[in-house]
Design brief:
Layout (H helix, E strand, L loop, with lengths): L1 H4 L2 H18 L3 H7 L4 H9 L18 H14 L1 H21 L2 H13 L4 E4 L15 E5 L2 E12 L6 E10 L2 E11 L5 E6 L10 E12 L10 H37 L1 E2 L2 E2 L4 H29 L5 H26 L10 H9 L8 H20 L1
Parallel strand pairs: 1-4, 2-4
Antiparallel strand pairs: 2-3, 3-7, 4-5, 6-7, 8-9
Helix pairs in contact: 2-5, 5-6, 5-8, 5-9, 6-7, 6-8, 8-9, 8-10, 8-11, 9-10, 10-11, 10-12
The structure holds flavin-adenine dinucleotide.
């Protein structure tokens, strides 16, 4: 299947990430999870390998690769450790993309080289206590005062928040008592008035850094705005659409890692005098897992390829994210079942894959929201075709 979407760059990225993941990530993945340790050294290495700037054009110091390459890299990292993969993905897709898509020349020149090298980590703040799926209910408020904005409010569940040097976020925009809509800004996290909350204790993605952010009368210049003052919501929705390929690729990698462990275990574990994969109930589970992973990969690569052709991917990205994330949860559940009691203890990695899989059905749009988007798109097509 790789032949369908891959060129030499993609093969090179796949091989490089596989080698890096197996030699550097896999040996410490369990420790990072147990100790909830942010993978600082791995981030540095990913910067050196060009992964932190994989989607940034070469003129800004990035690797200048396309979405298929990006998805391949995220899959390869997540196969070893989803926390490392989301750290890289939240930085490149969420943290960097808004600047790539909507930044001014000045913002691009100032921020992209540092993001691309991994010297500065990026984060993206959309979610608020009362604005998750309903992201348009943003309460954070930026009031124009002279050449500046004064921002009050906050964000929750922000990936990389405690390690990021740069934050893009959405806010309501007010000019002279008039609400203009939702805008977006990019700011250094060292900005006065930005308080970074304590690290969240999570079920999975435990080595990834997730925190709440508070804005207290935070003064930022007008030049920190990303794009049009009232276009921030659309800016972030575009970022989220690409982000769905990202989370879908994470899901494929997570499912693949869990599947490989279950396959291996099924050859080693014996019951009733034979390897358990001699039992059809086990081998059929493996067959379903392999088939669903293959289908997820196809959906992700297809959506990524469409994005590279500048096609509209709202429906395809939502379908790919939905199917891949639900596959990851199913595969991780079956991987535990194949391990029996050993699947439930930390001696085997499948319990980590299981905990890491659940968030994939929630982050960057829950499964319910993906179904909402897909059904809306299907009905739109129906109406369009009827005209
Ligand atoms: C580990 C982690 C990392 C994250 N990283 C980031 C980040 O970096 N940046 C960021 O901005 N956000 C981040 N998030 C937030 C994440 O995107 C949201 O949690 C997610 O979008 C869901 O929003 P919510 O938690 O408010 O759930 P809610 O929106 O409250 O949803 C609760 C339930 O209601 C359902 N629901 C809501 N509306 C509808 C509807 N219209 N139709 C049907 N069902 C509906 C949902 O599907 C869900 O089952 C992260 C979250 C986690 C846990």
């Amino acid at each position: 299947m790789d032949d369908l979407f891959f060129n030499q760059d993609h093969i090179m990225i796949q091989d490089m990430v596989r080698e890096f993941a197996e030699s550097e990530i896999m040996p410490i993945a369990r420790e990072l999870d147990e100790e909830e340790k942010f993978p600082t050294e791995l981030v540095k290495q990913m910067g050196e390998l060009g992964l932190m700037g994989i989607n940034v054009p070469e003129k800004y110091g990035g690797s200048g690769l396309d979405m298929v390459a990006y998805a391949t890299a995220v899959m390869g990292l997540a196969r070893a450790d989803a926390s490392v993969a989301i750290t890289m993905a939240a930085h490149t897709s969420l943290g960097t993309l808004p600047i790539l898509l909507h930044g001014s020349d000045e913002q691009k020149k100032t921020y992209l080289p540092k993001l691309a090298s991994g010297e500065v980590i990026g984060a993206f703040g959309l979610t608020e206590p009362e604005a998750g799926s309903d992201a348009g209910s943003t309460k954070t408020m930026a009031v124009k005062k002279g050449d500046d904005y004064i921002v009050n409010g906050g964000k929750i569940f922000i990936t990389n928040a405690g390690k990021a040097g740069l934050l893009s976020f959405t806010s309501q925009i007010k000019h002279e008592d008039k609400l203009l809509g939702i805008g977006a800004f990019v700011i250094p996290t060292a900005t006065a008035g930005l308080e970074i909350g304590p690290k969240e204790k999570k079920m999975g993605w435990r080595a990834s850094d997730t925190r709440q952010l508070f804005f207290h009368n935070m003064k930022i210049p007008s030049s920190a705005m990303l794009g049009d003052p009232t276009d921030g919501f659309r800016t972030f929705l575009k970022t989220l659409t690409s982000g769905r390929i990202s989370v879908g690729a994470l899901a494929v990698g997570t499912a693949q890692g869990a599947y490989e462990r279950a396959l291996q275990y099924s050859t080693e574990r014996e019951a009733f005098g034979r390897p358990i994969n001699n039992f059809q109930s086990v081998s059929f589970k493996l067959a379903d897992m392999a088939t669903d992973i293959e289908a997820s990969k196809l959906l992700i690569y297809h959506a990524a390829w469409m994005k590279d052709q500048n096609k509209d991917i709202v429906k395809e990205a939502a379908m790919a994210k939905l199917f891949a994330s639900e596959t990851a949860m199913r595969v991780a559940t079956d991987a535990i079942q194949i391990h029996g009691g050993y699947g439930y203890v930390k001696e085997y990695d499948v319990e980590r894959y299981f905990r890491d899989a659940k968030i994939l059905e929630i982050g960057e749009g829950t499964s319910e929201i993906q179904r909402l988007i897909i059904s809306r798109e299907i009905l739109k097509e129906l109406q369009h075709n009827a005209l």
